[in-house]
Here is the input.
Amino acid sequence: MIELDSTSAIHALHRLALDHPSIGESVPGATTLYVSAGVPNLSTDGLVDLLVALTDEAAPHDGVRTEPSTHVVDVVYDGADLADVAAITGLDVDEVIRRHTAPTYVVAFLGFSRGFPYLAGLDPAIVVPRLASPRTSVPAGSVAMGAGYTGIYPASSPGGWRLLGHTSAQFFDEHSDPPSSLQPGDRVTFRGV
Here is the structure.
């Protein structure tokens, strides 16, 4: 496990780790990256040395070899919590939608459930607490926000985030490689339809 001081540094190192034959698995978090050896004879010290070298290679002055993808996601803003978000923030529903669609988000990391993207960049004016009691089932494609992030539920699952709307776009297919088409570092914008 390596810890760096920014999500962008983690994304750069993650992209380099994915391409390195001596690294087996690379799993980014907000400011951490878990890696495992991809070859049986790589010692812990050897893995640490490799990560240090890759960290130097991932430094901003060297650039990033693989550019992140950009995704535009069409959203029907009809979520069960949209009016509550407006009431909590003191904004009207149209302004909440405008503020949700204005930023370009960055996929900070995937987690919670397979393919669930934590998208950083939410306008602070619409950050509200999670639900006091999570729902037992949130439909796949739900666009929601919680914990200062926004995200898209890739499959039906329990969840405590505020539902803003839904999309018909699908970003997770367990038979694809990689299974999630949204990867850490990718950019996402929402468009109301």
In short: Helices lie at 7-19, 44-57, 82-89, 93-101. DSSP finds four helices and twelve strands in the chain.
